[in-house]
Design a protein that fits this description.
It is a single chain. By secondary structure, the protein is α+β, with helices and mostly antiparallel strands. It has a single domain, classed as Roll (Nuclear Transport Factor 2, Chain: A), CATH 3.10.450.50. The protein is built from three helices and six strands, in the order ααββαββββ. The chain has helices spanning 8-26, 32-35, 57-70, and strands spanning 45-47, 53-55, 75-85, 89-102, 105-120, 123-133. Strands 2-1-6-5-4-3 form a six-stranded mixed sheet. Strand 5 and strand 6 (123-133) form a beta hairpin.
C-alpha cells in the first residue's frame, strides 16, 4: 500500500513548528522539549555546530544538553529554505539565527541547519541534525 505524500506534508509542517518552539527553548538553556522530539533509536546522529558528532540517542542527548547549558541566547528564529517529504522520511534545510544581547549591544549568529525526520509509531521524530556556522565566502569560478 502506498501513501500519498501530500497527506504527510501538513503533519511534517506541524512537527517542524514544534521543533522551532523546542529549539527556542534549547537555545535558552532548556534542552528537554527538543530532546522529546528525537527518536530514541541507536541510529540517530548529530553533527553539531559546537563541533564533533555523536551517534545514538544517549550520546546525542548528552551533547545537546551540554550545548544548551553552555550557551544561552536571547532570541532564536528560523527561515525554512526547503522541505522534502516522503512516506516515512523527510528533511528540512534552514537558516537559524541566534541573537545574544549584552552591554546594550546585539550579536547575531546564523547556522546552516539540516534535519532529517522519520515516522515512528505514526509520528515524526528527528533522526539527524547537522548545523554549522554560516560564513560569507567569496566564490571565484
Amino acid at each position: 500500500m502506498t501513501t500519498d505524500t501530500t497527506t504527510r506534508e501538513p503533519e511534517l509542517h506541524d512537527f517542524i513548528a514544534r521543533c522551532h518552539e523546542a529549539l527556542t527553548q534549547q537555545s535558552q538553556g532548556r534542552p528537554q522539549p527538543f530532546l522529546d522530539l528525537w527518536s530514541t533509536a541507536e541510529d540517530v546522529t548529530i553533527m553539531a555546530a559546537v563541533g564533533g558528532y555523536e551517534i545514538g540517542f544517549e550520546r546525542v542527548s548528552a551533547l545537546l544538553t551540554w550545548a544548551s547549558k553552555a550557551q544561552s541566547f536571547d532570541g532564536w528564529s528560523a527561515e525554512t529554505l526547503v522541505t522534502s517529504v516522503g512516506n516515512d522520511l523527510a528533511s528540512s534545510v534552514e537558516l537559524e539565527t541566534y541573537i545574544e544581547r549584552d552591554n546594550g549591544g546585539t550579536k547575531e549568529m546564523t547556522l546552516r541547519a539540516t534535519q532529517v525526520y522519520r515516522r515512528e509509531d505514526g509520528q515524526w521524530r528527528i533522526i539527524h541534525r547537522h548545523g554549522d556556522i554560516l560564513t560569507p565566502v567569496e566564490v571565484k569560478w
